[in-house]
Amino acid sequence: APEQAARMKKLQEHPPPQKVEFRKRMEQEVSQFIQATGEPRRPPPPMNKIERSILHDVAEVAGLTSFSFGDDEDTPPLMVFKKEFAPSDEELDAYRRGEEWDPARAEERRRLRELAAQQEEAELEHPPPPPGPPNDYKDKYRHLIGPPPAKAAARTMEANKAYGCGP
Fold first, then answer.
1. What residues does each domain of the chain span?
2. Are the C-beta atoms of 113 and 121 separated by less than 8 Å?
3. Where is the R3H domain (predicted)?
4. Phi and psi for 154 in degrees, rounded to 5?
5. What SS3 class is residue 42?
6. What are the angstrom distances between the C-alpha of 137 and each of 42, 131, 143, 164?
7. Phi, psi of 73 (to 5 degrees)
8. pTM of the model
9. 4: which of 11, 21, 39, 115 lies 20 to 30 Å off by Cα?
């Protein structure tokens, strides 16, 4: 571990010439990007992990925003944005999914999410009625109970007290 720490410190103090050259080239590209008025973002070419970290550092020093997207550890897509054109969360999600950013599709998705939220609120305000039996028990036993006029007559019937029957 001490040897590795010493090696890392030495690399940080005296970076290899190709890293210095790459950093200068990235600084030139970033300054050209800043001066380009019609470009809100720029995707640089694919690069390895160290080159990406150098570009992130250069972009931060220049006052730009940079993001790496994707799961591929060797060459995930990288995008540099001007601060005034910083991406929204939806735009970043589209880039992470590997899709091209389309504001019209994003607006449609936002509208659908709002509509779903409104429907959910409406369902919470007016809950469905509590579940009940699918049919009335009286229908099931109509042959035993009889029609409604017969039930009314049965209620008015007098019991024969001699036999002890109830109505």
1. 2-87
2. no
3. 20-83
4. -65, -35
5. strand
6. 72, 15, 12, 29
7. -70, -30
8. 0.53
9. 21
Q: Residues 34, 20, 10, CA angle at the centre, nearest 5°?
A: 135
Sign of CA pseudo-dihedral 103, 105, 108, 113: negative
106 in Cβ contact with 70 (< 8 Å): no
Name, in order, each residue with C-beta under 8 angstroms of 54's C-beta and a sequence gap of 6 or more: 19, 22, 23, 26
Topology, domain 2-87:
Ribosomal Protein S8; Chain: A, domain 1 (3.30.1370)
State the amino acid at position 136 in one-letter form.
D
State the Cα–Cα distance between residues 135 and 32, nearest whole angstrom.
77
> pLDDT digit string (tens) for 82-91?
777 777 778 8
- CA separation, residue 111 to residues 3, 4, 162 (Å): 57, 54, 79
Query: Could you give the C-alpha distances from 25 to 9, 44, 55, 84, 97, in angstroms and in order?
Result: 24, 12, 10, 24, 29
Reading across the β-sheet that carries 41-42, which strands appear in turn?
41-42, 78-81, 65-68
The CA distance from 87 to 96, in Å, is 12
